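[Solved] Which block belongs to which protein?

Original post:
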Amino acid sequence: MVHIINAKSISCGEFRADLKTYNLEEINKHDNKKDGIWVIFKQGVYDITDFVDKHPGGPSKILMAAGSSIEPFWAIFANHNTQEIYELLESMRIGNISKENVVFNTINENDPYSKEPIRHKALKINGQKPFCAEPPPSLLIESFITPTELFYVRNHLPVPEIDIKTYSLELIVGEVTRKELKFEDIKKYPKYTITSAIMCGGNRRSEMAKEKQLRGLSWGIGAVGNAIWTGARLCDILKDLKINEDDYNHVQFEGYDLDPSGTPYSASIPIHKGMDCRADVILAYEMNGQIIPRDHGFPVRVIVPGVVGARNVKWLAKIIVTKEESQSQWQQRDYKAFSPSTDWDNVDFSTAPAIQEMPVISAICKPEPSETIKVINGKINVKGYAWSGGGRKIIRVDVTNDQGKTWHTANLNAEDYNAKEGKYWSWTLWSIDLPVKKDCKETEIWAKAVDASYNVQPESFRNIWNLRGFLCNAYHRVKVKLEH
């Protein structure tokens, strides 16, 4: 039943003592018309079942929030933030959700994944334990800054529970602990903010897997996000330790996340990147202006802009300045790429360097594969993202729908306009109104990006295939149907 009230008397989403309080598990079940479609806004729970088909933006977007929060969507579609919309939503109010309701009520103490954070239901899950998920492609390019709740999640182990009051970060040089920093000690360093994309090394792996079987999670194009990160610069912390860069080769990072043997997730970067203030490596404690959430590294994670996501270690426990690269599995026997002729019978991981800076890449987010697109004035609208590692600026995105006979240059609509040369850490959003042939019933769209070093994406996956499915940056191809 929908409660009709005088919505003007309260603020939308405030706790209401006259209504029932639900838990997240119960709300999550209401994600379809049969059981009812419920959504959350702040502390309010709303039954929008009868409204879905009347939604001016169509039912598809609002259904992404079914059984979960609509707040990340309203952060993108800011036209909802009006008193009129708040009153409309409040008229559909049925209850509350407790602020403290951040984990499911039923917890299996023997399951290391029993106290995981609740994730937004719009995320497509590629792995449950450890949790790995990505947002729908159509949402990726709606906002230059990816809403935190819709940022892809790539965990390698259970999410640790950390009390910020007892949190400490150990700083080790060689084999000697030089210092331990509490959370407040880290915050005493100059506050520094960057806007940077992070991309999983396996982004777009599902496409490479079509070329030949490989091992790894079946990521689509959504294992990437662009966020505002705030924290202390690593170079400032290392300089406090009076380190001579010439005496060391690597900076290792260890997390508080542990495998069953008690071994932490670990990765490393070259010492020159850690010591160079121009590299903008930071120990981030804020994401998009808020305390960094558990899934993304609470209370502190390393952000190494322009580098594969695997080196951006979450839940930071130790920083180790050493001559040795991290000996962890994720540095030595994973996140490396090989020749297409290398298979699991002849692979030698010691022969390949660990992936650091990422290659140039792009993806088409709209339209999505097999979607039917209405042709307007002989054209269809195509949107996507492009990015290159190492701080290299995207200078061009080329799009074709005639197998490369004719290339059209896309408009670069959004990038970090304050970035300095060599520090383009953010992605670039692009779009184009692409001409299509009259009466053509379907077409295949290709996209390729070019960066400031004139690196360009390879044409196909055939010659860059590798057994772990990393660096999947061939032309992105999307087949769609056309409605004239």
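(Second protein starts here: sequence line, then its structure tokens.)
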Amino acid sequence: MGRSVLCESFVEDYLRQLSRKAGVCMGLLIGQPAVGGKDYIIHATRITGQDEEESDESQKLNATIASQQALDATRMLPGGMYVLGIFVIHPKNVFQEPSLLSSIKFILMSLKATFDANPLLMGTCDELEQGEKLVLYYSSSSKAHTCKTVSLATENPTVLSCDWKFVERLTTWHKLNVYFETDEVYPLQHSSNREQYDTEANLTECAKKVKLQLADAKILFDGAPKLSADTIEGVLTMKNQDKFLANVYLPSPAVLSIKDTKIEEFEGTLKFDGIISSQIYIHSRCTFIEAERFIVADIVRSLMSRIQIHCDALVHAEDTPQDKIMLNELPRRVYFPVRPSQANFPVQFSDYIFPDESVDTPLGRIKEILDVNVTVRDLNSKVELVPVVKEDEREDVWSPVNASEDDFDGKLNMPVVGGLVTVIVLLIALLVYYFMK
């Protein structure tokens, strides 16, 4: 028995519109896999910049563009949501045309290689996807559709059968909010053959450490552990409520033995701290073991997305001297609805903006990568707020403790002045009371 796929009906409307406008195009299928070989597709987006010619050179170009857009789209997805495959709108049946099918296999292998090269983005979920990617063929002429899966577990990808259904409302989506705080210090590592520190390599190493910590973490729902096989919907029905409070607890040894202690000297250290907003959406039949996996995936993916976006924005000359203290402010997370016109569809994706960027900055990226039309009003940019530190406040923070007395000439000690004023007022009150007696 092959995989089973349920897809929101508005995705079919999107494909129908594309078939009328473009005729021939390709795009990404985004959704959530589940235990038992079932997938939920909630969004589709056209791959931009495609060349409709079918030469070998264009196939390589298409694979490159598709892989990059899949990577960019994954950065915007919450944990539990993945690029599960691609759709192809074409007048010819791609499964019956050897050249087209070969091109599709090449593109899927390119997607896999891209995700393998960026493991901390958690772009695949092999436990649930089983090494398979979906391929949906949609006829631009008859509007008929056929879906199959392509197994990428071997060097020669094989095509397997798949059952695809468009559904008006395929499931109920539950939201889990988690805030993960990290406050660690790591040694700085030099880049090879250079005296400078590699910012991206060091920040990526921090993300790896966080992932290792989360692998051993305990996640409690409403303050208590849940059975792995229990479904979210089943427990919520028993509790007569529609949401959970999830807490992530990292293991910490109660006693540190002498054998485990050591003193190390480093040329530099990196203080890695902050709070990550994690917001995931899970289907009604999702089990708690899946929910835990999705929470971890969201935290790590969000962290790595910020690091990559931040490092892509950095421009340093080779001979730029390193400051003793360097501040790397990662971008903050903003959320937007997948279906802005449908208030009853709760799933939201996210993007990232830097402190000096305006709230409307992500609108163009969201349209280009996910083909979603959102406005500033649709964005939720107040989940993560970065405190604004003025320059004089920074100087106060770094002012030397052993400052000379000359630095304070002409400045009043306000606590002392306040105390003197209080004493004078008290004496006047006592004198007035004494003479009016």
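Accepted answer:
You had them paired correctly. Confirming on the second one: Residues 11 and 380 are 24 Å apart (CA to CA).
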